[in-house]
Write a structure and sequence with these properties.
The structure is a homodimer of 222-residue chains. Chain A is an alpha+beta fold and 222 residues long. Chain A contains 10 helices and 7 strands. Chain A binds a DNA duplex (20 and 20 nucleotides) through helix 3 and helix 4.
DNA sequence: CGGGATCCGTTACGATACTG
DNA sequence: CAGTATCGTAACGGATCCCG
């Protein structure tokens, strides 16, 4: 049962962990930050999770008010973050900043989809954005489509194709990880691992400037 | 075994959780942020942890380079954070910011000591500090002594009595939690739940200004 | 008494299979 | 697609015991 292994302490850290500290919970939240998702989207993005666990965790997120179940387009059920659930962004970002310090496992398990990208890169862009930047970019990472919308110093990253992108950038998950953690330089990343198609002239530079600044956040010393 | 239940994903969040995501690990780190601690300090601060788990977790922290075992004064063994381990501060702080949004359990378990306070309040003071502030304060919380040293916009919080405090402030853990989460106002906190003894005139105001600003960080909207 | 190690009953997890 | 059911295994919690 969910209530048995709780800390039940006054400490706010323990209170947080009692909601989001269980195995898989933070990774589910991570994927939900890419936008509403179906059960099977989550299952495929969370490599290795058992279905009963995904069910349990989603239910706990709903009970705690971090997520809701809602109806999507063709009668499909979607899970989405609530406002409270969206507050986990900074926790996830700091976790990513910390986790980036460790070398990746030699044979990492591949996720079935790349929703995983959205939080980390989204928050990093949010912190790096300048008020002048304004564009809609489509990021194609290993064939999956993300939309990065920037305007008035506000950034949104969604796991969906863009409607009318100013720029389309194509790259790979591995290259993004390597670049953000300093394994390859930003120049090398851009030259060797990125293809850009510009629809609105100039917007390509805005995108690369923002991505460069965002990735620099992870290039932490020592 | 420690390696069996790891995510082994490329995602930096998952990589972080593979080191610090196990049950109790983040709370152990939390207590270590108050300064080097003995096995039994940790055991008593972490209400309810089993000894084998504490041993396992400490060993894992050492293996991952987040903590080290070292020798203290009277031949006692101490556990301390490494530089890498100290990098968990911001993760813990964001967890505290998030956890503070949930009402405390009705009958929370009491910790055997209050090392738990150090991270949260320490980071909050660090973020709220102004360059002019400079003092050494002793915080006596439920009879336990902390030292808050402030100089040159740098803040240190240790679980130890102060050598020559400019101010001594006495209060309770519950009142601090209540004030930092907006249950009682800062004024009421200061008037009803705090006793101050000033040794260096004026420093008392500096302390209360800093604490007020720090606690305001937690008073997040909605 | 500090610093653990060992044992054991219970619980959660992971894998797979199955269902509306 | 969205889960439920089952089951072996690994981790947890509590207690006790050990050793310098």
């Amino acid at each position: 049962m969910a209530g048995s292994r709780r800390y039940r302490l006054l400490c706010p850290i323990a209170r947080a962990l009692d909601r989001i500290g269980d195995r898989w919970t933070l990774l589910i939240l991570r994927d939900l930050h890419a936008g509403p998702a179906r059960y099977s989207d989550l299952k495929s993005g969370l490599t290795g999770i058992a279905s009963n666990l995904l069910t349990d965790r989603l239910q706990q997120l709903i009970d705690d008010g971090l997520a809701i179940k809602c109806d999507g387009e063709h009668g499909v059920t979607l899970y989405a973050l609530t406002g409270l659930g969206a507050r986990t962004r900074d926790v996830l970002f700091e976790l990513a900043m910390f986790g980036g310090r460790f070398p990746p496992d030699e044979d990492p398990r591949r996720p079935g989809n790349l929703r995983t990208i959205a939080v980390t890169l989204g928050v990093a862009c949010q912190r790096a954005v300048t008020p002048e930047a304004r564009f809609e970019a489509e990021l194609k990472v290993d064939g999956e489509h993300f939309t990065l919308s920037v305007q008035n110093a506000s950034v949104e990253m969604r796991y969906a194709p863009a409607k009318s992108p100013d720029v389309v950038m194509t790259t790979s998950y591995e290259a993004m990880i390597a670049a953000s953690e300093g394994e390859i330089s930003l120049d090398r990343f851009q030259k060797d691992h990125v293809e850009i198609v510009t629809h609105t002239p100039g917007k390509e530079a805005e995108l690369m400037t923002l991505l460069g600044a965002a990735m620099t956040l992870f290039a932490n010393e020592s």
